[in-house]
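[retry 2/3] Arm DNA-binding domain-containing protein: previous attempt timed out, resubmitting with same input.
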Amino acid sequence: MMNFKQNLTVLFWLYRQKAKADGKAPIYARITIDGKYTEMSTGKKVNPASWDLDAKQVTGSGLEVKLANQKLAQLQTDVERIFNGLQTQFPHVTPAMVKNVYQGKPAVEQPKLAKPAAKNEQTVLEVFDESIAKFEKRVERENASFETLEALAQH
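[retry 2/3] Arm DNA-binding domain-containing protein: success.
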């Protein structure tokens, strides 16, 4: 398998059009490989006044600023690690492949087939356990709070 040198860049930007009532706008990541790109939310929102357009990070002090910048640095590291791993498996890596793996999906999604005719019925407990597992993944991605997860698990 012959691999060609590919160039990866990750750019963070503030999606001002999606600002909420509190004034905070989501920070998005643009993953570009050789001119092709895909975008995804980082899960972080900030006040546009604290976004450094040149440095592509949050300015100011405090825990929220520190956590936001740590999240961006971690996302950058994760995307680079995923990209390097995919390059060992595929002759050509696309931004969509990197995004898929980052989001816990297969690098190359298979076409959706018709659903099986008869699926085993799940018990209420199995459905609940599955819901908690999905919520845990949201907590790991910082899209949900750990406290809510604890409350769910206690029921």
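[retry 2/3] Arm DNA-binding domain-containing protein: The helical segments are 63-89, 95-102, 124-140, 146-154.
[retry 2/3] clearing retry counter.
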